[in-house]
Amino acid sequence: MINISKPQIGAEEKQAVLEVLDSGIIAQGPRVKAFEEAFAAMCGVKYAIATASGTTALHLALLANGIGEGDEVITSSFTFIASANSILYVGAKPVFVDIDPETFNLDPAQIEKAVTPRTKAIMPVHLYGLCCDMDAIMASAEKHGLKVIEDACQSHGAEYKGRKTGSFGSGTFSLYPTKNITSGEGGMITTNDAAIDEKCRVVRQHGMRKRYYHDELGFNFRMTDIHAAIGLAQLQKLERFNEARRANAAYLNAHLKGVVAPKVPEGCRHVFHQYTIRVPDGRREALRAYLQEHGVGSEVYYPLPIHKQSFYVEELGYRNRLPETEKAAAEVLSLPVHPALSQADLETIVATVNEFMAKR
């Protein structure tokens, strides 16, 4: 089976973990600090704050930006549910707008229609490793005095006009095993704002500025040195991993037939966390079955948009109509693109898709 994803763990990661175990400092310590500094440098920002997961990074970033009860945050419904749930965690309301059908990212033209007196932030989701249209989003944020909290959980190293994701507002990243780099489990917040940095660090550790003196309500959102050691080793390989993904995506783009391949807008550097095609004419599920039968993994990210999830409909009363989001959910299919793919794997993926699509 050619798997849809495959974490790239090598001798460097294993040795780094052994060194932490031998050091006796296993909880948050010097490796976390080193990982934060290296991650900030990668993103081109002053500060990075390590957390226990991408979800806790989103939660903490919202808290640090003062988002709370009764506020509204404009975001996409075409994403993993943690994006919206993190808004609920702080007592705010996710306000969903439709996506651009070519990029699958939040459509900036829809933002203006969604702004109300309660709107406090925009959460653009850089889906599949492609940066949103940040010029337009930042212009809307500046016009209305809104915070920008980037959900960059799938876009490590992606760029928009030479700037890395996570450098526009408060960035949030996931380090889950399927991501472009992993720490096993973990997250990261990036910012140039010293006040945001301090708030995140205090709330991350039970509201402590001084040990055992708790100034405010906080959480245990810390990362361990074991996870940070893995993340540090992975971060050194990020560019190599991303270039392999980009090369694999270029091969697929050049050879797949009968499907709609992903497009990369000018000025964007896509890092292909997922390589996502559209399958027309209602044939997606049949193609998935055909791929599975021929040893090629695939996945649908995401089959049911957040605004259609039962909790959001039945408990929260969402009744949105987002036609582009709903159309994408019915057509998208992600194919393997990870760095472990061989040339033979790529040829198999192409041949299998093309064989199916040629059967009319």
Descriptive labels:
Aspartate Aminotransferase, domain 2, 2 domains, 14 strands, globular, 13 helices, Aspartate Aminotransferase, domain 1
> Termini separation (Å)?
26 Å
Number of strands: 14
Range of helix content:
25-40%
The rounded Rg comes to 20 Å
Task: Give the overall shape.
Answer: globular
> Major sheet: size, sense and barrel closure?
7 strands, mixed
Description:
- This protein has 2 domains: 11-235, Type I PLP-dependent aspartate aminotransferase-like (Major domain) (Aspartate Aminotransferase, domain 2), CATH 3.40.640; 238-357, Aspartate Aminotransferase, domain 1.
- The protein is built from 13 helices and 14 strands.
- The chain has helices spanning 11-23, 30-43, 54-64, 82-89, 111-114, 134-144, 194-204, 225-235, 238-255, 284-293, 310-315, 323-331, 343-357; strands at residues 47-51, 72-76, 93-97, 119-123, 147-151, 159-160, 163-164, 170-174, 187-191, 208-210, 213-214, 268-269, 275-278, 332-335.
- The chain has a 7-stranded mixed beta sheet, sandwiched between helices. A 3-stranded antiparallel beta sheet has the order 7-6-12, with no helix packed on it. A two-stranded antiparallel ribbon has the order 10-11.
- The chain is globular, with a radius of gyration of 20 Å.
